[in-house]
Structures are given as C-alpha cells and as structure tokens.
Design goal:
Helix content is about 65%, strand content about 0%. The chain has about 100 residues and is mostly helical.
C-alpha cells in the first residue's frame, strides 16, 4: 500500500507544478485525436500503411500519432481527413474555467 500512496503523492506534486495541468490536457487531446483516427481507419479495414500513403506521411509517423505521441498540425489533420473522405471540424467552445 505504501507504493500506491507514494504514486498518489508524486502525482499530486507533479500536477501542482506550473504548466502541468496544461501539459496533461494537451497530451489527453493528442491521445483522443489519435484514437479517433485509428477508429476510423479500422472501421474501413485499412492498415496504417494504406492510410499513411493516402495522407502523404510515413507509417511510423501515423503510428506515433495514433498512439498519442505527437500533436499534429492542422495541415496534417486536413490531409488525414481527406484521405478518410471526411471533413475536419475545428471549433471553440466555452469551457468552465476558474480563471
């Protein structure tokens, strides 16, 4: 049980550091974008190679993106959307913020 408490304490300390919450949110968004693309690709029965070629990128870059390891540019997202015959929609929504 000590190990679990140590992990919880470490997480609290790290999240209290300046910028940690923003970095966590950015990583979460990158993961969610990658997961959405992976789901669409798999629904079509496509391999990473097929989608990466259609989107003009390498298979390894697509794999990193799908795993949430990179934050894509809007241009890349547009190429992926076009390759998947979908439309990219980017919008701003009001959020609950303490600031």
């Amino acid at each position: 049980m000590g190990e679990r408490q140590d992990w919880a304490r470490l997480r609290r300390e790290r999240m209290a550091e300046p910028g940690a919450a923003d970095a966590y949110d950015a990583a979460r968004r990158a993961f969610e974008l990658g997961a959405a693309v992976r789901q669409m690709r798999e629904e079509r029965g496509w391999t990473q190679t097929r989608l990466s070629e259609a989107a003009g990128m390498t298979q390894s870059a697509l794999a990193r993106f799908e795993a949430g390891g990179t934050v894509p540019t809007l241009a890349l997202l547009e190429r992926i959307a076009q390759a998947l015959d979908t439309h990219l929609v980017v919008k701003f929504e009001r959020g609950d913020s303490a600031a």
